[in-house]
Specification:
The protein has helices at 17-28, 63-76, 125-129, 139-142, 158-168, 187-194, 291-313, and strands spanning 4-13, 34-36, 50-51, 61-62, 80-82, 86-90, 96-100, 104-113, 117-119, 135-136, 150-154, 173-177, 199-202, 205-212, 217-224, 230-233, 237-240, 244-246, 277-279. Helices cover 24% and strands 28% of the residues. The protein is of the alpha/beta class. The protein has seven helices and 19 strands.
């Protein structure tokens, strides 16, 4: 049971580009935001290396360094940033109740959810060892670094097919590793893959090991699950495209979600189905999943929260 209670005007849950941008705007609107970072302070970008596609960094920037810049900016403008995670919520009535670390209850006039999403991984030790050093879960983010090189991508759905064709425009060759003897992707996406000459599809194939020299990826060992034969592919990049899982489990039963757990927001806003609760970033975006789009919706969430509170303060009673 939670032992202490605190009331705040604006609670931000999560600390990636969406959360920090929401904090910057909420601070400037004098909402006195309090942010709980979650267990991975700074979000997924703290696990990446160089970021070259975020505006304002002409020479690129390391992911952790960029998140540190955003954190400092949010703090300078007045956000109180605390390490901790939201363990449960109660959106039955206003103000909303959020329990932190199973021990502290926050009551909040507005809640901005910026909990993000986590890439699904294969579960290989070598996959984590080379994450950010040749292994990536985002072709759009990192494909640029593999221009003219040979790469592999694992997955058989629409996202994998789309990312394979994207990589094919940059890489010399793309090996597409498909576990079954067919795709799960739509016919249109399969047609696009089959008609891209530098994509080689390896059906009935599973990834056994990511190979490297201790610093970066040098290949991938795959096995044919029909013949049990192993093959080593000479690649410098390995992309995992087997899906993402939104970090929204504690909101199930409270907020409207799609079948995979992404929170549904009202078109053109960050409003959820619960009054005073807003959602931004990858927790509600399964399409773009970029730092810059997350930051944009973080801005929207803070503005939506500020307008919501302003409207409540100026309700005219007859």
């Amino acid at each position: 049971m939670s032992q202490e209670t605190e009331h705040i005007k604006c609670l931000i849950i999560g600390s990636g580009p969406a959360g920090y941008t929401a904090a910057i705007y909420a601070s400037r609107a004098d909402l006195k935001p309090v942010m709980y970072t979650g267990l991975l302070a700074g979000g997924q970008l703290t696990q990446t290396t160089e970021v070259e596609n975020f505006p304002g960094y002409p020479e690129g920037i390391m992911g952790p360094e960029m998140m540190e810049d955003l954190r400092k900016q949010a703090e300078r403008l007045g956000t109180e940033i605390r390490f901790g995670y939201a363990s449960s919520v109660d959106f039955t009535s206003l103000p909303h109740k959020v329990v932190i670390d199973d021990v502290k209850t926050i009551t909040a006039d507005t809640v901005i959810i910026a909990t993000g999403a986590s890439a699904k991984w294969l579960g290989l030790d070598s996959e984590q060892k080379y994450s950010g050093f040749g292994v990536s879960a985002c072709a759009v983010c990192d494909g640029f670094f593999f221009k003219g090189q040979d790469v592999a991508i694992v997955g058989a759905g629409d996202t994998a097919a789309e990312e394979a064709t994207y990589l094919a425009k940059l890489a010399r060759k793309v090996y597409m590793i498909v576990r079954r003897d067919e795709f799960r992707a739509s016919k249109a996406m399969v047609h696009r893959v089959l008609n891209t000459p530098n994509i080689e599809i390896l059906y009935n194939t599973e990834t056994k090991e990511i190979l490297g020299d201790g610093q970066s990826v040098t290949g991938v060992r795959v096995t044919n699950n029909q013949t049990n034969t192993d093959t080593d592919l000479d690649v410098t990049g390995f992309f995992v495209a087997i899906g993402h899982h939104p970090n929204t489990d504690i909101f199930k039963g409270w907020l409207n979600m799609d079948e995979t757990g992404y929170i549904i927001t009202r078109p053109g806003s960050t409003e959820t189905n619960v009054e005073g609760v807003f959602c931004c970033g990858d927790a509600q975006d399964h399409i773009y999943r970029q730092a810059v789009t997350a930051a944009g919706t973080g801005c929207m969430a803070a503005i939506d929260a500020e307008r919501y509170l302003a409207a409540k303060e100026h309700v005219v009673t007859a």
